[in-house]
Amino acid sequence: MGISSHNRSGHHDRQLDPKGRFSLLVDWRPPIGESVYFIKVEVEGIPALRVFTQTAFDRKLGDIESASEASPAQRDRARGILFGSAIESKVNDQGKLTIPKALAESHGLSLPGALRLVGRGELFEIFTPENGDAIQILEESTRKNDPVISAMLGF
């Protein structure tokens, strides 16, 4: 399995420095020179920054292109919304990723301050520590209370 197809997993606490940089786990880093894309989302109603690797971003574009139920105009609009929502960045030579200050602050992150990373396979999400705790509790509740999800997971 190549590094660009690494699956990012788990919950990890990190620290933002005053410039909005944090050290990305070695296994989570994209190949050197490859972009990542920040997109503001809500997960179970909780604000998050979703970080797409280039592979995940390209897959999302492919999903838009192959959406047979969508008209060409809708696909163009969806592509435009995706690009308009994304903020491109790269991991620096020291393995640090920078969240632009305005994006970090609009997401409730403090510079300097703590953040929580949650692995989601080819992508990951960034939460405030409090929201990271809340999403973990919500997902545990879903796992326990939704018999279909519980059966799929097997734990």
Topology:
Layout: E1 11-16, E2 21-23, E3 35-43, E4 46-53, H1 54-65, H2 72-85, E5 87-90, E6 96-98, H3 101-106, E7 113-120, E8 123-127, H4 129-145, H5 147-153
Antiparallel strand pairs: 1-7, 2-6, 3-4, 3-5, 4-8, 7-8
Helix pairs in contact: 4-5
How helix-rich are the residues, as a percent range? Answer: 25-40%
CATH architecture: 3-Layer(aba) Sandwich
Based on helices, strands and strand pairing, what is the structural class?
A: alpha+beta
| Percentage of residues in strands | 25-35%
Global geometry: globular
Overall tally of structural domains: 1
* Main beta sheet: 6 strands, antiparallel
Structural commentary:
By secondary structure, the chain is an alpha+beta fold. 36% of the residues lie in helices and 30% in strands. It is built from five helices and eight strands, in the order E-E-E-E-H-H-E-E-H-E-E-H-H. It has helices spanning 54-65, 72-85, 101-106, 129-145, 147-153; strands spanning 11-16, 21-23, 35-43, 46-53, 87-90, 96-98, 113-120, 123-127. The radius of gyration is 16 Å and the shape is globular. It starts with 10 loop residues before the first strand and ends with a helix. The relative contact order is 0.23.
Descriptive keywords:
155 residues, alpha+beta, Chemotaxis protein chec, 6-stranded antiparallel sheet, two-stranded antiparallel sheet, 5 helices, 8 strands, 30% strand, globular
Structure in a nutshell:
The protein has 155 residues and is an alpha+beta fold. It has a single domain (3-153), classed as Transcriptional regulator MraZ domain (Chemotaxis protein chec).
